[in-house]
Amino acid sequence: MANKEPVAKVLTDKPEDIKVNHISWDEYFMSIAILSALRSKDPNTKVGAAIISPDHKVLSLGYNGMPSGIDDAKVPWSRTNKSDLDNKYLYVCHAELNAILNSNKDIRGSILYVTLFPCNECAKAIIQAGIKEMVFMDDKYHDTDIEEASRKLLTMAGIKQKRYTGRIPAIDFGSIKYVPQKK
């Protein structure tokens, strides 16, 4: 598992401190995916995704949530109800799909950073979108049929899959508070 040491510390003017505090591209983009996951209202699993160009530009972001225009309070967030219609799974848009749909740029040849290994449905969307590489952090559903199908699809499509091994940021905004602007 990734090192839990904070990603950034206070920088000084010393070159050796700058080198220590420099984060890799993987750490940078996975941190953006993690921050995106915090937008999710899912009480059980928050997932974030970032689509990045081969030249390190952010193309799109997404997190798991209800479709645009749907009142989150009117749709179930449960995952254990007996009826399928009372479970979140029939309603939630996954982070990867949201990132693909949110993009207004050509994402072919891009890299997807995602906090949870994608399901088979998202794998199909990733393939169709032309994404060529995926960096994932968690794989908690690894032994399920859905994940096995996803891995098969991604492998058959030639999409490089890499588990994230970098540091995980300690997201602590400390004393920074949101202050609304006065009208």
What does this structure look like?
This protein is α/β, with parallel strands linked by helices. It contains 5 helices and 5 strands; from the N terminus they run ααββαβαβαβ. Strands 2-1-3-4-5 form a 5-stranded mixed sheet. The longest helix is centred in the first third of the chain and has 13 residues. The chain is globular. About 3% of the residues have low confidence.
Principal-axis shape = globular
Strand content: 5-15%
Reported for the largest beta sheet, the result is: 5 strands, mixed
Order the strands across the largest sheet as they lie in space: 2-1-3-4-5
Output the structural class. alpha/beta
Regions with pLDDT < 50 over 5+ consecutive residues? 6-11
Average of per-residue pLDDT values: 86
Number of helices: 5
Distance between the termini: 47 Å
Structure summary, number of beta strands: 5
Q: What is the CA-based Rg, rounded? A: 18 Å
Percent of residues in helical segments?
25-40%
Order of helices and strands: HHEEHEHEHE
Summarize this structure as a short list of keywords or feature phrases.
globular; single chain; five-stranded mixed beta sheet; 5 helices; 183 residues; alpha/beta; 5 strands; 27% helix
Quick synopsis:
This protein has helices spanning 15-21, 25-37, 95-102, 120-129, 145-156, and strands at 48-52, 58-63, 111-116, 133-138, 160-163. The chain has 183 residues and is α/β, with parallel strands linked by helices. The longest helix is centred in the N-terminal third of the chain and has 13 residues, at 25-37.
Task: Explain the layout of strands and helices.
Layout: H1 15-21, H2 25-37, E1 48-52, E2 58-63, H3 95-102, E3 111-116, H4 120-129, E4 133-138, H5 145-156, E5 160-163
Helix pairs in contact: 4-5
